[in-house]
Write a structure and sequence with these properties.
Largest sheet: 10 strands, antiparallel
Distance between the termini: 84 Å
Helix content: under 10%
Shape: globular
Radius of gyration: 24 Å
Strand order of the largest sheet: 3-4-5-6-7-12-9-10-11-8
Oligomer: single chain
Mean pLDDT: 83
Number of helices: 1
């Protein structure tokens, strides 16, 4: 490399670094100089920090409904071929569904996701070929399946598993998929903890708000609801749908 080429290379490198610094630099509220970074994460993009936490963006189109997700992941494992060994917090927004369906939720390992779930209505067994599991390693995990053809979904608890199948603890699938169902197997995360509790939670009144216990769709008979009505009375609604005033 000649001297002219070296100088030209160094000039271009300095210009690139200056442009990068300009995108990062701003003045803090206390007058100090800080570094910041702004990036729109599109589908399958990721921004990694210290090899143990990263941000991702994802877009999904299912039955005409466009979903976008922003995911904060903590953990060193980013290899989906054998499942994830990490924890994930997800902010999800549905652009087309009625009811303003946006969610904030968390999952942790054992965490498996695939697109080849096969389930039959009336059966409690899920079959897949994406992973080879150790028998019964998934007992107690949550399992969620969505039909790519109808958008129907169901979530349950794993009673047992073989190398390629899982069996629900109770209930059965209410729809069919033929090796094209989207499935996720995970462990739910804690909101706060015994030594780091949340101070206060704000929830809306009425049956559209409150605190739900269990899982699944509201009308699926899998969750109970504690809620307050418009005049301040507290109610408990059972899984069967009957409400009782408790104050």
């Amino acid at each position: 490399m000649t001297e002219d080429i070296k100088i030209d290379f160094l000039i271009k490198r300095v210009e690139a670094l200056e442009a990068l610094l300009a995108n990062h630099h701003h003045d803090g509220l206390d007058g100090s100089a800080n570094l910041s970074f702004h990036q729109s994460l599109n589908d399958l993009q990721e921004y990694r920090i210290a090899n143990s936490a990263y941000f991702t963006g994802a877009t999904q189109l299912l039955q005409g409904q466009e979903l976008t997700r922003a995911v904060i992941t903590s953990g060193r494992d980013n290899n989906p071929t054998d499942g994830f060994d990490n924890s994930q917090l997800v902010l999800e927004h549905n652009y087309t569904a009625a009811g303003n369906l946006s969610f904030y939720y968390g999952t942790r390992s054992p965490l498996y996701t695939g697109i080849d779930a096969s389930v039959k209505s009336g059966s409690g067994v899920l079959k897949q070929n994406s992973y080879k599991w150790t028998p019964d390693e998934l007992v107690g995990c949550a399992v969620h399946v969505t039909s790519t053809t109808t958008g129907a979904f169901k979530i349950g608890t794993v009673l047992s598993n073989t190398e390629t199948t899982v069996t629900l603890e109770s209930g059965t699938w209410g729809f069919n998929t033929k090796e094209d169902g989207i499935f996720v197997i995970f462990v739910p995360v804690y909101l706060g903890g015994g030594n780091v509790p949340w101070r206060r939670a704000y929830v809306t009144e009425g049956t559209g708000g409150g605190l739900r216990f269990g899982f699944g769709a509201t009308g699926d008979g899998n969750n109970g609801l504690l809620y307050m009505d418009s005049v301040g009375d507290l109610y408990w609604r059972t899984k069967a749908g009957s409400s009782t005033k408790i104050n």
